Amino acid sequence: MAINQAMCGSYKKEITAGIHFWLTHSRTGSGSIAADTFKIAMFTSSRTDANEDLTGYTATNEVSGTAYVAGGDALASVTLGLSDNSSSVPTAFLDFTDTTWSTSTISGARCAVIYNSTLSTAGTGGTVGHAANPSVCVLDFGGDKSSSAGDFTIQYPANDANNAIIRIA
Amino acid sequence: MFQASGEGGLGTVSVFTSTDGGHTPEQVADMALNRIMQINETAPPVIRDQAIAHKNRLREILIYYMNSMAKSERTTIWALMKKQGHDDIAEIIRRL
């Protein structure tokens, strides 16, 4: 399959199984569980399995260059909101601060994958298995993007129920 | 579909890149505007046109002050270089 912007099918199952922790979590009678670290990594157009069927991050066809480290950058300042969207459907939505590779030289970035780097080895949540570094979604840039001795910024959309980067309605 | 009436969705990211330097004031202004206001393409035309005009005006203001900030930052770096005795580097920065 070709590159396709999509929420990964495996992620939908994994969040239902309670495998991912975007935020610190506590439950009555038990200690606090730290939030997982989620990262965004970029890939060239050769990464043709970057679509809804992707289950986890691997370095195949990942971009490389000055100021870019394999595995990508951690997402910072994760916030979770809830409000009605324009169709009056209660919608949960996630947001992060923009990701910038400063003073970078990066060529041919065609898409990005957000994944859970805390779960660096394959495991299970109940009876649900997950891949190593399980993927959340694929973001399609719509074309190859490059920086040269400059800045490379991925800006996430407005943090609301209609536009946020990850939404569940 | 998460429920009979539910679904998951992804927003659209914007990618900004630069060559031989950082982002331009215009790029940074666009980044700010993307976060400040979104205009629904299905909005009534009169409202949508007013929103677009307002957004364009905001963009001009933001670019002006982004440029002012860049100049001000260069002045700060120029002064620091001068104080440290790097007059040649200070001059390069002043001429930017």
Radius of gyration based on Cα positions of chain A: 16 Å
Instruction: Provide the gyration radius of chain B in Å.
Output: 21 Å
* Strand element count of chain A: 13
Tally of DSSP β-strands of chain B:
3
Number of helices of chain A: 1
The geometry of chain A reads as: globular
User: What portion of residues of chain A is helical?
Assistant: under 10%
Anisotropy-based shape of chain B: elongated
Calculate the mean pLDDT score of chain B and round it: 91
Oligomer: heterodimer
Verbal overview:
The complex is a heterodimer of chains A (169) and B (96). Chain A has 169 residues and is mainly β. Chain A has one helix at 9-16, and strands spanning 6-7, 25-26, 32-33, 38-43, 65-66, 73-74, 79-84, 90-95, 99-116, 123-125, 128-130, 135-155, 166-168. With 96 residues, chain B is mostly helical. In chain B, helix 1 packs across helix 2 (45-83) and helix 2 runs antiparallel to helix 3. The longest helix of chain B has 39 residues, at 45-83. Chain B is elongated, with a radius of gyration of 21 Å. Chain B starts with 7 loop residues before the first strand and ends with a helix. The mean pLDDT of chain B is 91. Chains A and B meet through strand 1, strand 9, strand 12 and strand 13 of A and strand 1, strand 2, strand 3 and helix 1 of B.
How would you summarize the topology of this molecule?
The complex is a heterodimer of chains A (169) and B (96).
Chain A: E1 6-7, H1 9-16, E2 25-26, E3 32-33, E4 38-43, E5 65-66, E6 73-74, E7 79-84, E8 90-95, E9 99-116, E10 123-125, E11 128-130, E12 135-155, E13 166-168
Antiparallel strand pairs in A: 1-12, 2-3, 4-6, 4-9, 5-9, 7-8, 8-13, 9-12, 10-11
Chain B: E1 8-10, E2 14-17, E3 19-21, H1 25-36, H2 45-83, H3 87-95
Helix pairs in contact in B: 1-2, 2-3
